[in-house]
Design goal:
six-stranded antiparallel barrel; 5 helices; alpha+beta
């Protein structure tokens, strides 16, 4: 009995036992409730933040797409032309050089000391104008001597001829006197020729160059005095491929342009075709003659020569500004109708079309392939266009040809 009573009676807990259980609980593994709540709160906050960011990005993307869908750019304003057909001029182009028809370096035929200079460097002279005088005093002395001999020989011939008629002198004496007279006259002619050589004159009209002599200078025969060039008439010398021989004929017009005078076209005519083809280059030399009335061009200039050939008929022609020249090929923008707007007006769009270009002249270009007559082509404003872009054709006129025409 006593044992049962002791078993049913509650056990007393002493302070020492409570402290021992608390120590045992702290040593057991696990997470305290406060720590769990903290992790749950942080996880919820992170979820809310990430969800908000995702929702904001989605909203921004939809709003941006809707904005661009409802705010399309207005049609680009362009100037357009209608492609037409016309005869295309053709040219046989080459690079040539100019040469004067008359050009020479003035030199004396005989030597001597310069006593007088009659010209001004760079001046214009006429044929026969004196240029320099070489000392001719000895020759003038010889001339006076020969003239005296002529006078004496002439009197002697007349006297002996009269005596021979009266049989007072022989015929042989008269012949000797006549020979002396002829020799004296020949001496006069020779001396006068030497005197004329010592007065150097201009052989033709033209313009002088830089003076290369001074008064008192001794000149040897052939020494340079000054250059004389006739700039009124020039040769244009250039070469063309021998394959173009059938198209080149005498008298054809040649358009000549020089870099020194942009925009100005000089006119020449073919006067000579070299009858021999150069074996190394298979080219032929062509020479044209031109008039240079204002002496603008100078001998020795490089020029562009274009022989005018018969035109090629019925080619599509556009302004040169309508063609986009790129490394990937030439192209144009063709304007076509693509539907109708709500207000009933046609919707125009520009579509890129590759083309094959031909000769260019006076701001125009021939289109060999890619465009048909009647097509509406963008002539200005291509920079702001893309393939299929909406356009509006303005009333502005198409660009005018450039002021400086080129021949290609």
């Amino acid at each position: 009995m006593d044992g049962d009573i002791n078993t049913l009676a509650p056990a007393r807990v002493t302070p020492t036992d409570s402290v021992a259980r608390d120590v045992v609980d702290r040593g057991r593994p696990g997470i305290r409730p406060k720590t769990v709540r903290w992790f749950v709160i942080v996880g919820l906050l992170l979820g809310l933040i990430l969800g908000g960011l995702y929702g904001f990005n989605r909203y921004r993307e939809q709003a941006t797409a809707q904005f661009f869908a409802n705010n399309r750019p207005p049609p680009a304003q362009i100037a357009a032309v209608t492609a037409g057909s016309e005869a295309v001029p053709r040219f046989a182009s080459a690079i040539g050089s100019l040469a004067a028809v008359h050009q020479v370096t003035i030199t004396p035929e005989i030597g001597g000391r310069v006593t007088q200079i009659f010209f001004t460097a760079g001046g214009a002279v006429k044929a026969g104008d004196p240029l320099i005088q070489i000392n001719d005093a000895p020759e003038r002395g010889d001339l006076a001597n020969y003239e005296a001999q002529v006078r004496m020989a002439k009197v002697t011939v007349e006297r002996n001829t009269e005596l021979a008629r009266k049989q007072f002198a022989s015929r042989e004496t008269v012949d000797q006197n006549q020979s002396q007279l002829d020799q004296a006259r020949a001496g006069i002619l020779k001396t006068e020729a030497i005197i004329a050589q010592k007065l150097v004159k201009a052989p033709f009209a033209g313009r002088l160059g830089v003076r290369q002599v001074e008064v008192g200078q001794y000149l040897n025969p052939g020494a340079a005095v000054v250059t004389l060039t006739d700039l009124q008439h020039l040769y244009v010398n250039f070469t063309l491929p021998s394959t173009q021989r059938a198209e080149i004929k005498l008298g054809q017009q040649v358009n000549v342009t020089a870099d020194a005078f942009p925009g100005r076209v000089f006119t020449a005519a073919v006067t000579t075709i070299e009858p021999q083809i150069r074996a190394d280059t298979r080219t032929m030399m062509v020479q044209a003659t031109m008039t240079n009335a204002d002496e603008a061009l100078l001998a020795g200039m490089y020029v562009n020569a274009a022989v005018v050939l018969p035109p090629e008929p019925d080619r599509v022609v556009l302004p040169e500004t309508a063609v986009d020249y790129t490394l990937y090929g030439d192209s144009v923008y063709v304007v076509r109708q693509d539907g109708t707007a709500p207000d009933g007006k046609p919707v125009l769009k520009a579509f890129r079309s590759p083309v094959k270009t031909g000769p260019r002249w006076d701001g125009k270009v021939a289109i060999l392939d890619g465009i048909k007559p009647g097509d509406q082509v963008v002539a200005a404003g291509q920079v702001k266009l893309q393939n299929g872009a909406a356009v509006t054709v303005t009333g502005n006129p198409p660009p005018q040809p450039p002021a400086n025409p080129t021949l290609n």
